[in-house]
Amino acid sequence: MKTKLILGTLMMVAPVLLLLARPAPAHPGESIAPQLKVLAPISHGNLTIFPIVVAKSHDTSDFLTLDEGIRSGEVVVTEVGNLHGMVRRSPQTYHPGPQVNTLVLVNNSKRPLILLAGEIVTGGKQDRIVGKDRIIAPESDPVDLSVFCVEHGRWSGGSDKFGTLGFLMAVPSVRKQAMAEKNQQKVWTAVQNQNSNTTYNMAKSAPGIAASSANGGSAGLAANETVEVNGAAVPVTPEGARVIGRLNSTTSLAMVQSDATVQKELKSISDPVEKSFESVIKQLRDQNAVGVVVAVKGRIIWADIFASKELLSKYWPKLLQSYAAEAFSATGTAGDADIKAAQEFVDNWKTTHEVVDSEPGLYRQTEMTGDRFRAFELTSLLPKQIFDLHLSKMAE
């Protein structure tokens, strides 16, 4: 049985002691860390990350990720209505046919499954993202999975089951609309903005796509073509016109992000950051890298923090890819985030409102609202594993 508790006007003053600083629940659990330390920034282009380290972490080896489960076949995600032979125990009632904001998941493994908000599942009638962090019990009956569509328009498909591309996760701006706003229309709007801005920046700056004086440009547009992106006519190379046409032809967040030409641009951002990140981590023999603070164009937008460096490493490729995609599509003016601002971001847990969503004995998710931030804390309540698994924090 799930329980939900709303806590209003809570004033927490101790930084980072997340669970201990609040009124203790029946199973308070152990916070991700008593102290989170932010390291010097790593930057490339519009993307800056600040590694987060702790002296002590937790054993998370028993937990299964969605990518691992789908890859092994032990986890099945399907449209509502395709439950034939999937129910183990008690009969359950589901909608008779596919629903935009509902999928069904079965965990056939003997390990608890972690789901993170923003994880993309592709296939079925349309691509979806997981709506919130949660844990699915081992050997579960079908679970009603709350999701959001990230492919407006398509409602057809040849496969009943969903997969993951392994390296894709929704960008922070889309995750925010799913997690904090819980609004399908706002998710669609965020996806449309992300796709449009990505396509526009590809047309304006990507090598081989954008026009230049060397291949036409202002010196002679006859060698180029003009495409319309975001209401603007942009000169591109002939190959660029084909690429932009392909990107404009889909509403799928996954298809745009996984396009080979887009991937090339994203990797030009993520690869140098990943190399520097790995170099920094190798030097930290007595500390655990468990997360990052993310800034785009010098403005702090997000933080992802995990219970262990091993858990971060499992999600790191897809998270970094999502941060790079957010940075590549960025618009607006630049800010000036530094290590002091990043440390203050992870130290500030003074909240005015909390909502607790719990499945006793399995997990608790706490949504926290504070001054210019929203945060979501996933806590395992499994026997001998009562500690925070994942914390995501977004700037408002």
Q: Topology of this protein?
A:
Elements: E1 3-8, H1 18-21, E2 37-38, E3 42-44, E4 47-54, E5 64-65, H2 66-72, E6 75-79, E7 102-107, E8 113-115, E9 120-123, E10 128-130, E11 134-136, E12 143-149, E13 162-163, H3 172-181, H4 184-205, E14 225-229, E15 232-236, H5 238-248, H6 253-258, H7 260-282, E16 288-296, E17 299-306, H8 309-328, H9 339-347, E18 351-359, E19 363-370, E20 373-382, E21 385-395
Parallel strand pairs: 5-8
Antiparallel strand pairs: 1-18, 2-4, 3-4, 4-16, 6-7, 7-12, 8-11, 9-10, 9-13, 10-12, 14-15, 16-17, 17-21, 18-19, 19-20, 20-21
Which key features would you list for this structure?
396 residues; alpha+beta; 10-stranded antiparallel β-sheet; 6-stranded antiparallel β-sheet
Can you give a write-up of this model?
It is a single chain. With 396 residues, the chain is of the alpha+beta class. It folds into three domains: 192 residues, no CATH class; 118 residues, no CATH class; 75 residues, no CATH class. It is built from nine helices and 21 strands. Strands 1, 2, 3, 4, 16, 17, 18, 19, 20 and 21 form a ten-stranded antiparallel β-sheet that branches. Strand 19 and strand 20 form a beta hairpin. Helix 3 packs antiparallel against helix 4 and helix 4 runs antiparallel to helix 5. It starts with a strand and ends with a strand.
